[in-house]
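One record is given unchanged without comment:
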Amino acid sequence: MSRAPAVAGVLAATGRGVADLTRWLATLFSRSLQVRIVVLTVVLTLVAIFGVGTYMTQVIARGLFESKLSVVSDQTNTYVAQVESVAAEDDLGEALTVQLQSMFSRSPSPLRSISLEPRDANSSVLPLTVLDTVQGSPRVEELPEDFRQQVSESVTDQQRYTSISLAEGEETPGLVVAQPLSVPGAGQFDLYVIADLSEEQATLDFVTRAAAVAGVVLVVLVGAVGLLVSRLVVTPVRTGSEVAREIADGDLDRRMPVPGRDELSQLAQSFNDMADSMQEQILRMERLSVLQRQFVSDVSHELRTPLTTIHIASDMLYESRDEFDASARRSAELLNSQVDRFEQLLGDLLEISRYDAGAAELVVHPHDLREIVTGVVETVMVVADRSGTQVRVHAPTAPVMAELDRVRVTRVVRNLVVNAIEHGDGRPLDIHLASNAEAAAVSVRDHGVGMSTEHVEHVFDRFWRADPSRKRTLGGSGLGLAIALEDAHLHGGWLQAWGELGEGSCFRLTIPRRHGQAITTSPLPLPPADAAPRAALVAGPTSSDGSVRIQTGSIPIVVDVSAEEQGARTGQEDERDG
């Protein structure tokens, strides 16, 4: 009883080992072109050798059999003539026995037996058999019944033959040739000649072994040739793949070796020429990009001083506007608003230039996202009331804490809320807050015109607007979402967008709760839970939380509920998720 679990454990371990080996071989076959070439070459060679070897073996076996059959058939004809020439004597049985022994001993090919069977059961001559006393031979009555029936129905000079096994339970082939004859004074007889095919079988076995050895040698040689050829082809390909990977990682000076002048060397040279051209273009674009960033930064800084002077002057004119006539008063108001807008654009340009230069820094402290969202909502309430937009904040009663830069996150949330008001067509605006163990999130959902697939693809591009002709209440530079995306990345988080024409849009900001922590999921769904269940495009970094596929189910919304209600709802959600 104690050995059974041990045996079962050994069998289970063996099964796991075989499964692991199978998976490893499958992985190696699927990932290595060289292995596939060698394996396929060897397999196809084995199939070809097996097919050709089988055909040749059958042809040789048939040739040996037919050659032996021809020899034994000629002998049988000779034996029939000799038996029929025996003169009728008083002791005919003795004479026939002597004749059979003489034929058997003088046979040019190895025989097992010669038998003479009378067709008449009342014949004066009994059945006679001369056989090899050492190896033995099957008797006539042991031959197949259908064969003996055919022989008995045969006419003079008509031969019948069949192949048999000479020893029961052994693979010793034999050949039986039978022919009717007539003995003067004794009547009709059937002559059975049983020949030994051991020599032919030995020849066939030798040929088979030789073909098998030749096949093994050929498979090894073909496998070696396949390995050599595959190495000649795969090695440059593998080198090219490694060089391309290093170039993609930023090593633009990496090149492929060009060892000769063959096709692969020409391919390597073409690859190097392409890499040279790409490096030149990339360096040129980098220089242009540096010059562009430097230009924007210089212009932005240079405009700061005159803009400050203009702003002071416009403020003075704006404060004194009541002393002007209607036309001058309107001009002062327009001047003041446009200077504010110009200053905002200049600030955005400076912020973008800091990101491009890698000079942007975070000032991280623990903050409650609810306070940030509440503050933003209060600042835009006047604009929301003017457009008839109802802003609804859905937040848990517990703080949504995260380590963040309050100024930058406030700017992101304000940008998202302002955009939602601008494009919401006066319909309700929903702001959701939630958190999980690793991340905190804010989603801003409007139910306005929405966005097409093209809009979603370009929504974070600089200076891009979905509808430039739309009347804007709060101005805008076209850099707001681009800066918001940079702010999210600077926090190590995500800013993702979803939209459908006629169904509105949703922007989701997800940041880690602890600065520097990697996030893999967001506590809020995107597309939003109230979106139609169909395929939708989501812009922003790909994440493992389902942001690139439809998610259904309710999102965690708690608005001004008691702690008891909050605990009950959390327990229901945990039970549903479980």
